[in-house]
Write a structure and sequence with these properties.
Distance between the termini: 43 Å
Radius of gyration: 16 Å
Number of helices: 7
Strand content: 15-25%
Number of strands: 7
Shape: globular
Helix content: 25-40%
Oligomer: single chain
Structural class: alpha/beta
Strand order of the largest sheet: 4-1-2-3-5
DNA sequence: TTTGAGCCGTGAT
DNA sequence: ATCACGGCTCAAA
């Protein structure tokens, strides 16, 4: 089971979106999504030992469809990335990362947060009769699938944007989170 | 607006 | 069992 990877550049986010996946029983399983500055892309690729294909050379129908959907989203279209990927038969295996019931349930609740909406860390916890807002933040921090699992929609209760750590430092992470929220505010 | 103390699930020890 | 660690909160100053 070899890991494949491809990336596309998003002018909207000013980031490269790197998708890692592998194929098992003719089913695509997503391994991770990373948002990387162009300047850091070569380092990221070498550090993770990625065999990255250039997008235009990829024949795989799954990849073509993934890119189509991602581009729709990046253009500001109201698309549910998780559902659309699932409908393609692409498996987003978050249970490998999130092993506990609590973490998995939080992700399930997060997936119910609609496009363009936000929710606070504490509200998300409250859905599970918990007050563990900090623990929720720690779960978001580990999200291997930014954009697809929309952790950018989880903000602070006082309406501040909160942090967004996706292999980025805090400042650029928060800016990127803000961009994503703005992107989803289209009419 | 800025601190500081409380908060809670996780993973490591 | 315990501990330290945070994408957090609340309230006091």
């Amino acid at each position: 089971m070899r890991t494949h990877a491809f990336y596309l550049y998003s002018p909207e986010l000013e980031k490269n979106i790197v998708i890692q996946y592998f194929v098992k029983n003719s089913c695509v399983i997503l391994k991770g999504v990373s948002l990387i500055d162009s300047i850091n892309l070569p380092k990221f690729i070498s550090e993770n030992d990625l065999n990255v294909k250039k997008l235009e050379n990829i024949e795989n129908e799954y990849v073509v469809n993934m890119v189509k959907i991602l581009n729709l989203y990046l253009e500001g279209k109201q698309v549910n990335l998780y559902d659309r990927f699932m409908n393609l038969g692409i498996n987003i295996d978050y249970k490998t990362t999130f092993k506990t019931d609590f973490a998995q349930s939080i992700i399930n609740e997060l997936l119910k947060v609609d496009y363009g909406k936000t929710i606070s860390y504490s509200e998300l916890a409250f859905k599970l009769n918990s007050k563990a807002s900090r623990a929720v933040g720690n779960i978001m921090r580990k999200n291997p699938f930014p954009l697809i699992i929309p952790c950018h929609r989880v903000i602070k209760k006082n309406r501040e944007i909160g942090k967004f750590t996706v292999s980025l430092n805090d400042i650029s992470g928060t800016n990127l989170k803000r961009k994503l929220i703005e992107l989803e505010k289209n009419e």
